[in-house]
Specification:
The chain is of the alpha+beta class. The chain is built from 10 helices and 11 strands. α2 runs antiparallel to α3, α6 crosses α7 and α7 packs across α8.
């Protein structure tokens, strides 16, 4: 399970991201001279395999020609790779002419199959360009950086965790938060974009930037209306998204919660020890022009907690989301009694299904 943990305290913890190891990745040579040097080296390696295949066929079979091809698919542009493939074909013809077709026929077939697979992968990779892999990693880093939670006063704690479907690198769920009204108000939006994988990740990146710009620019009651209008303008085939928007006064604890096709939020009342389902209604974003979003108004007292989550946390193919909410609340209550600090992360780890993206926001007033 791939999970991202976002937290807010007075001292922000150091987070390890892909940026730390990206500099150690194998980089694609970009200049013409670099490409020529790598191509010459791989051609030399191919000729070496040719010589050893002829002299020591037991130790170096014909299938070893796949090694230069594999390296070429990682290091060469598609044009240079085609040149290497031509040299490989000449080398294999020479091997067959010397050793005889019956001796190396099986190895030749294996080498051709491997070459076809590598060629397909190289063509797909070339569509992204030489910087394609770095661009995808930058996309993921930007999405996660935009989900950073702001620092809050000492008597408030907020945690957010995101788990991608099947451990994929990209998730359609994201969280955007900001303190507004000169730090007196916290606004958080939890969003579940339709789809999975890279397609959902690119849409989530676009929406996270747009929604981050809307936070604080509009009254809380107008946020989802503006977000819905923005999605309608995109005219995506799978352009809908569910969302929950929370506006919390940090001085008084009063809050407004509105949802758009999203599971309801839940509040723990410390005085009674009971959970309350915060009922609000509204259609998913990007579906209706004149959508209305009815909100819930409440207050977080000392010791109270509030959770917002996406449907991947509570809904499975075999279970209705209402039963999933009951189970989630039961597990959260046990953890709070034990005094666990990482409630959100532990609840994400206990999820029954990893077939969908999962996000959980846990807010606690100490």
């Amino acid at each position: 399970m791939a999970a991202v943990r976002l937290s807010s305290t007075r001292e922000r913890p150091v987070r390890l991201t892909e940026r730390g190891w990206r500099r150690y990745r194998l980089a694609v040579p970009r200049s013409h001279d670099e490409q020529s040097f790598v191509l010459l080296g791989l051609i030399s390696l191919s000729v070496g395999v040719l010589l050893f295949t002829v002299l020591e066929p037991l130790w170096v079979p014909t299938a070893w020609f796949a090694i230069p091809l594999l390296l070429g698919s990682l290091l060469l542009t598609i044009r240079s790779f085609l040149g290497l493939l031509l040299v490989q074909a000449v080398c294999i013809v020479i091997v067959l002419a010397i050793t005889g077709p019956s001796t190396a026929s099986v190895s030749v077939v294996a080498a051709l199959v491997v070459a076809a697979v590598i060629m397909t992968a190289a063509v797909a990779r070339s569509r992204l360009g030489p910087m394609g892999e770095s661009m995808l990693i930058d996309l993921r880093d930007r999405l996660r950086s935009q989900s950073e939670l702001p620092d809050l006063p000492p008597d408030w704690s907020v945690q957010a965790v995101i788990g991608s479907a099947g451990g994929a690198q990209f998730a359609g769920d994201f969280v955007v938060a900001a303190t507004t009204q000169k730090g007196a108000q916290l606004e958080v939006v939890v969003v579940d974009v339709s789809g999975k994988g890279l397609a959902a990740g690119t849409r989530a990146l676009l929406l996270s930037g747009a929604f981050g710009g809307l936070l604080g620019a509009l009254p809380p009651g107008g946020f989802l209306t503006a977000a819905n209008a923005y999605l309608l303008r995109q005219q995506w085939t799978e352009g809908f998204a569910t969302a929950a928007h929370l506006a919390l006064r940090l001085d008084t604890g009063t809050f407004e919660l509105r949802t758009a096709g999203h599971p309801p939020g839940v509040q723990l009342h410390a005085g009674s020890g009971r959970w309350e389902v915060l009922t609000s209604s509204g259609p998913a974003l990007g579906l209706l022009d004149d959508a209305e979003f009815d909100g819930f108004t409440g207050r977080l007292s000392r010791g109270d907690a509030l959770m917002i989550f996406t449907d991947g946390m509570v809904e499975t193919a075999e279970r209705d989301f209402t039963l999933g909410i009951d189970k989630l609340l039961g597990e959260a209550e046990v953890m709070l009694r034990k005094g666990d600090d990482d409630v959100a992360e532990r609840l994400l780890a206990l999820g029954d299904s990893t077939a969908d993206d999962r996000t959980l926001l846990f807010l606690h007033r100490r």
